[in-house]
Amino acid sequence: MAELADAPGLGPGPFGGGGSSPLARTSERFGKPGGDNRGMELQYVRLSHPVVAPLLAGLAAEYEHRYGPVDEMSLAHPDEFDPPSGAFVVLLDDGRIVAGGGIRRREDDICEVKRMWTAPTHRRQGHAVTILAALETIARQRGYITVQLETGPAQPEAIALYEHLGYRRIAAYGCYPDAVGFERDLAPADR
Fold it and tell me: pLDDT tens-digit profile of 130-177?
């Protein structure tokens, strides 16, 4: 698998030329790790890029539906997802956002996955696995050795996904005491 850092826009400087650069078609760079992503494009973008707006709106609506009014979306500044320590990727189908997520630094060798979301019309098709695989690849390239994340107790499908992918449960570490924490060590051979 070619390194994501070899993709246009991921060289020197935080985002290369325009704040958004294609990584690769998932069928070329990632095979089909999560499902049938043929014809879709995985892009590396700033969290503040307009293409991400539907993801953030959908995620906020999802949180409110499952948990009631919460302030989760203001707890991480968009700059935390910028290089050199962070990243945000989206999966696009004909220019429309299908899924996305990001990583941000927690400690020198630990990053956190945040803002994972898949459009309701595209769920259970493996797109979250594609996003997570891209984020783990980027995390390795950034020098992280552990990936952590939290999800809510009202998101059983997310809990099942992370357990299925080999993430192990850890104590909640953020501001939500009922959150379900997970982590995964990135294998030394993969870094």
Answer: 999 999 999 999 999 999 999 888 889 899 999 999 999 999 998 788
pTM for this entry: 0.77
Looking at the structure of the chain, the number of domains it has is: 1
Q: Domain range for residue 125?
A: 4-190
CA 58 to chain centre: 15
* CATH number where 148 lies: 3.40.630.30
